[in-house]
Amino acid sequence: MSKYNALWEYVQKNGSQSIKLTFDEIADIAGIAINHSFLKYKKELTEYGYQVGKISMKEQTVIFNKVEE
Question: Which domain of life is it from (predicted)?
Fold first, then answer.
């Protein structure tokens, strides 16, 4: 079980084509602050039908996009 499972499940349940979350929102959902290890874990999201799109350090946001089947 990944430390980001709660986040992956949240994104999947949202069901939108694209969802934008702030780093603070991600920390609230996942129960942990986002850090550089997020890059290692982001590939797990494809199992939930999504992928990590743009990560903006300036805006402190991450965009998640639904994977086209």
Answer: Bacteria
Write the burial class of residue 4 (CB in 10 Å: 0-12 exposed, 13-18 middle, 19+ buried): buried
pTM: 0.91
For 15, half-sphere exposure in the C-beta direction (CA atoms, 13 angstrom radius) is: 1
Could you give the 3-state DSSP secondary structure of residue 15?
Answer: coil
d(CA 31, CA 17): 24
What's the longest Cα–Cα distance across the chain? 31
Contacting residues for 49 by C-beta, under 8 A, at least 6 apart:
12, 66, 67, 69
pLDDT digits (tens, 9 = 90+) for 16-63: 999 999 999 999 999 999 999 999 999 999 999 999 999 999 999 999
